[in-house]
Design goal:
The complex is a heterodimer of chains A (133) and B (334). By secondary structure, chain A is mainly alpha-helical. Helices cover 53% and strands 9% of the residues of chain A. Chain A is elongated. Chain B has 334 residues and is an alpha+beta fold. Classes of the chains: A mainly alpha (133), B alpha+beta (334).
Chain lengths: 133, 334
């Protein structure tokens, strides 16, 4: 790719940074050029985020129909699986799975709620009182 | 205390950190040179390794390998430490080394990285950055994929050093402790190139090197039928992200390798490497075309088999080009 063809499509870098792109100059020599982004990258990044949003919506539906606890929503929001969440809260995965159900969630002690809330970077109140719109 | 450390933005974090750490100690080797010596160019399709439930296609060897090989070939000794479940010790040890006026490379997860654009923030744990100072509980950070130097608080830094999940850093930190007076660059380059040639052409498993590209091309054709439009698009999108997102320098490291070959041409005083670099640029351009077509296909979430066949055909063409390229390179280096 030539230096003057390095794309500058604003998108996922959100004006916060620019990425280094290797390209050749007028003498055919490689040089590092800053790029604001490239549309194909924006597209595939959007697709990854769409999937996360979809998981959040699925969680909300389950919470509304009484099949899941608020943890399900925040787990999805934080792009986590029960396995990864279990690593963060440092308990076995089967326990996390139990807490994903309303029944298991209602039995959680304050201490455990605090651990979950801290992992999700929210307050215990936000976690306990979460209601999907 | 803030060390006199030069922040140099790079295409890729791992090579960028090593290049910067060595520069601090007076050894000037570019990111591309480290990448080439470390044998960073690769292709692997690993259906048994899944990221977000999607089989992994990678354009580089496993994290840490480029760096370990480059250090070995250059005769550089690195001190590497991890601190499993000991975040306090990991932070104390970092402070201790900084006090000795040594910048430190650390491994980090990007999900909690506060200075990253939000769209970058996924659970990926093999990111690298340099810590080059500390004042009033704030750490000075040189993250090669950022345009400018940044900072993190004590808590923020601790958090990213203890990200959980696959490839969790466990507080990993590293810095050079011994750099030889004389570096045999020519020999290190030769070893790096030989290994890349070997890995791209001769690994007797169909998932790696040019064979891997052909294998994935065959699989990719069946995605729309096998997985349905939505999942097929997610698979293809992930491939484009591996090629282009955060830190490949473009086209799955192919342009960085082309830059490396230009440096080799000068060091060896052999223009044939410069000519080969042009071929590599063409290969990189074809991967860019792949990304562009693939992204369009994903966008429509189409299950049109023709769209998948088009990108699969392009992959076959690239596999032929890469094979031819490495056979030529082999002739030069042998």
């Amino acid at each position: 790719m030539e230096k003057d063809k390095v794309p500058q499509d604003e998108g996922i870098t959100q004006g916060i940074t620019r990425e280094v792109q290797y390209a050749v100059d007028e003498n055919g020599k490689y040089t590092k050029v800053f790029s604001k982004g490239w549309e194909p990258k924006n597209i595939v990044n959007d697709i990854a985020w769409d999937d996360i949003k979809e998981n959040m919506e699925i969680a909300n539906e389950k919470i509304k129909s009484g099949k899941a606890s608020p943890i399900m929503y925040f787990m999805a929001k934080n792009q986590m699986t029960p396995r990864l969440l279990a690593d963060y809260v440092e308990i076995p995965k089967w326990k996390v799975k139990r807490h994903l159900k309303p029944k298991g969630f209602s039995k959680l002690k304050t201490e455990q709620l605090e651990t979950y809330a801290k992992t999700f970077e929210i307050s215990v109140e936000e976690l306990v009182n979460y209601k999907p719109e | 205390m803030k060390l006199d450390f030069e922040h140099v933005p790079a295409g890729h974090c791992e090579n960028g950190v090593i290049s910067s750490l060595l520069r601090y100690h007076g050894l000037n080797l570019s990111e591309a040179m480290i990448f080439g010596i470390g044998g960073g160019y690769f292709f692997a399709y690993m259906p048994f390794v899944k990221v977000n439930g999607i089989p992994l296609a990678s354009f580089r060897p496993v994290p840490g390998m480029i760096f370990a090989r480059a250090a070995k070939r250059l005769g550089i000794k690195m001190k590497k430490q991890t601190f499993r479940k000991q975040p306090k010790r990991a932070m104390d040890e970092l402070d201790k080394v900084l006090e000795k006026k040594l910048p430190v490379g650390i491994q980090a997860g990007v999900y909690h990285l506060s200075y990253f654009p939000p769209a970058y923030r996924f659970h990926f744990n093999a990111h690298n950055m340099t810590v080059y100072g500390k004042e009033n509980g704030i750490y000075y950070i040189s993250d090669p994929v950022m345009e400018y130097p940044t900072t993190l608080t004590h808590e923020e830094l601790k958090k990213v050093r203890y990200a959980k999940g696959p490839l969790s850093p466990n507080g990993k930190m590293y810095y050079p402790i011994q750099i030889p007076e004389e570096i045999d660059l020519k020999s290190a380059i030769k070893k790096g190139i030989k290994q890349t040639v070997e890995w791209m052409l001769n690994i007797p498993v169909p998932l790696f090197g040019v064979k891997g590209i052909r294998y994935l091309s065959k699989r990719l054709r069946k995605w729309p039928e096998k997985l349905g439009p939505k999942k097929a698009a997610a698979y293809l999108a992930q491939m484009v992200r591996m090629l282009e997102e955060i830190g490949t320098g473009g086209a799955g490291f192919r342009f960085i390798y082309a830059a490396f070959l230009q440096e080799v041409a000068e060091i060896y005083q052999d223009n044939r490497y410069f000519e080969l670099s042009k071929e590599m640029t063409k290969i990189g351009d074809k991967w860019r075309k792949f990304s562009s077509l693939a992204a369009q296909t994903c966008k429509g979430r189409t299950s049109d088999p023709d769209a998948y066949n088009t990108v699969a055909d392009l992959m076959l063409e690239i596999a032929d080009d890469e094979q031819k390229f490495f056979m030529e390179l082999k002739k030069l280096i042998d």
